[in-house]
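dude i think i finally got it to work??
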Amino acid sequence: MYEDDFRDEDVDFDPEPLYLDEETDESAASESEDTGLVDVSSVLSAGIQALSGEEPADDRKWYVVHCYSGQENKVRHAIEQRIETMGMQDKIFDVVVPTEEEIEVREGKRRTIERRVFPGYILVQMKMDEDSWYVVRNTPGVTGFVGMGNEPTPLRPEEVSQIMRRMEAEAPKLKVTFKPGQKVRIVDGPFNEFIGTVGDIDMEKAKVRVLVSFFGREVPVELDFLQVEKA
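look at this
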């Protein structure tokens, strides 16, 4: 039995903030360190159970663990190593860094990147007791469990389902670096090199409406995302 109990530094958790804003730190989005997705076969089975309202046969649940931002994959590897060396396979089952593919348009170029859904957080599927808590909580880089007060709080089935759907989305999400009202430069087409102001952005069609000054008046021009860049 470990002397440590659930510690004061474990993070208080309000379930709503888990659904973070879509924009994240650019350095986190472009990080190249070990960006491969975790094998999520067992995660998907949990997601299917959650979608159908079923609970796992045993007491395993998904918990959110806070770690240093930018070290999510390193912490995941460390937990997996501790599971092996400390023989915790019957209590800690899976460690996941939730990610999703995103298409970023920058300087007229389109590239696919892998973005962490919740920077600074990883998910651990485990049976919570003092031993399993100790193994995860004392992993280098882990700063605490997310929970109410001092007690880790498991994710609800609907929360697990939502995360699984985001990870398994067939079409990558589209990200642009400009917003309505910003100045952009047109880099292709008949209005090449014109400076205009962003009006409407159509994410589904990957189109942007830009107002350009033409013969003394503003003219709306519809362009592909690849045809403009921030001025």
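The CA atoms of residues 186 and 192 lie 5 Å apart.
im so relieved honestly
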